[in-house]
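Notes taken during the Thursday session

The instructor put the following on the board and asked us to keep it in front of us for the whole hour. The protein is DUF1758 domain-containing protein. We were told not to look anything up and to reason only from what is written here. First, the residues (308 in total):
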Amino acid sequence: MQKIKLYLRGRRPPITSDQNVVQPLATSQEQFCLAGQMNYSNSILLSTAIVRVKNSQGQYVNCRALIDGGSQTSLITESCSKNLNLPFYESENTILGLDNKVAAYSTKRVELQLSSHFSQDIFAVNALVVKELTCNLPNFIVSKFDWPHINGLQLADPSFYISRPVDMILGADVFFDLILYGKISGTKNQPSALNSKLGWLLSGKVSTACQSEKKVISLINCHALLDLQNQIAKFWEVESIPDASNLSEEDQRIEKFYLDHTRRNRDGRYVVSLPFKNDNALGDSKSPSQETILLVGEAPSGQSRVKR
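Then, after some discussion, the predicted structure tokens were revealed:
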């Protein structure tokens, strides 16, 4: 049985033992991850990939992405978004993490066009902009490795063993569009390789150089809550009166007549012309009218007669 002590965004406890466990890389920044004291002899490697992202000038820039099917949305750091100089859209969202706690807020969204570092296939991704994502990955020192099962594979991140910042998270909104058929497993304490359109992704247990009893565990699991303003806006879009005109042809003709013939005189008064129908067909009314006149002309004596 192992004792586990978790703490969030706090200072790491002092080293009290020289047991062979993983040594995390030092950092002075706040991190959206959990840390705990665990007596482990190995660490977990998370899947990362080098992707080429199109900037505002149409050029492709290499960025490092964490592939995380447990995140409901894709995310990008504010610094990476500024470097790409992409236009953003207002979209207020709340990012929730472990224990349903608020991990970050996002007020912007960007549209990304990215591809792998070895092919020309383009993927469109909508990503929320946040200040920070997580600590450098991997967050431990990878010792010398000899993994025959990955020899000759086109890796998504050829330098997966070097601890570096993560520029974006590709979440479940695009995860299964990237995954291909194929998985290669290694022996004990060797990561598995998963085939994808970005290259082979490595993830799993890894033997590490252990010099401390502390360990930083990156738990990337978040989802975004759409803000109330966006939900209300969508409601009114559904309930709003359509802009399409239901006027008949005659109504449209009268409206056009009004726009063409309405003017304002020198006194400031509006002069409006009256429209008339062009249909002057009166029907066959001559004969009935003549008969009526004849009957009136033949009225009895004592009454006025009508001359023809």
